[in-house]
Specification:
Strand content: 25-35%
Number of strands: 9
Number of helices: 2
Number of domains: 1
Largest sheet: 6 strands, antiparallel
Oligomer: single chain
Radius of gyration: 32 Å
């Protein structure tokens, strides 16, 4: 037997041409395409579930913010509103006599680093536009000299219905949170 002589990709052994088999380790193009296709299928299955989970978390945050605002309004009414309710988030964020305001800084439209809504009276938080206004007749003047109202209405609307949240929420001084499945402000179905 003679030593192999090479000529490009062919080996010549004893006068016969023998093709060189590939001995390099690695993946073929077909194997890589199959892996990319599998990853694409898994992503197509997982992404809608992740988006629904994010919308659900945003809705839970909006409901928690409404509950916090109801608690803050109750405290405001009994401590410095003289039985009346604050007519804006800015008033609710301000201290009456001394101390701190009644809501957390992330709900204060005048707060540093807080994203205001388009009207400038509310805040954008976790994909929802939260705003509050006086509702009903005029109430007494609070101890800081601000007018109050006999009731209030808080709304939490998704910034983009179907993307940041699906349902819209609203609440009045009674404390019941209502939902609108279409994402609007006039929901009449209490949340469960």
């Amino acid at each position: 037997m003679r030593c192999p002589v090479t000529n490009g990709h062919l080996f010549f052994v004893d006068g016969r041409a023998v093709q060189k088999t590939r001995s390099d380790q690695g993946f073929t193009l077909i194997e890589l395409i199959i892996v990319v296709a599998i990853i694409g299928i898994i992503a197509a299955i997982a992404v809608p579930g992740l988006l629904r989970a994010r919308m659900s978390a945003n809705e839970a945050s909006a409901i928690a913010s409404l509950r916090a605002l109801h608690s803050a309004q109750s405290t405001y009414s009994s401590s410095c509103g003289q039985g009346g309710y604050a007519t804006s988030l800015t008033i609710l964020a301000s201290p009456c006599n001394s101390g701190t305001g009644f809501i957390s800084p992330d709900l204060n439209p005048a707060g540093v680093g807080v994203t205001k809504n388009a009207a400038g009276t509310g805040v954008l938080k976790s994909g929802y536009n939260l705003d509050m206004a006086g509702n009903g007749g005029m109430g007494p003047i609070d101890t800081a000299g601000n007018p109050t109202s006999n009731d209030y209405r808080v709304t939490a609307l998704p910034q983009t219905a179907g993307a940041t949240g699906q349902r819209g929420f609203n609440m009045t001084g009674a404390g019941t949170i209502f939902q609108d499945p279409a994402g609007g402000p006039a929901g009449t179905t209490p949340i469960g």
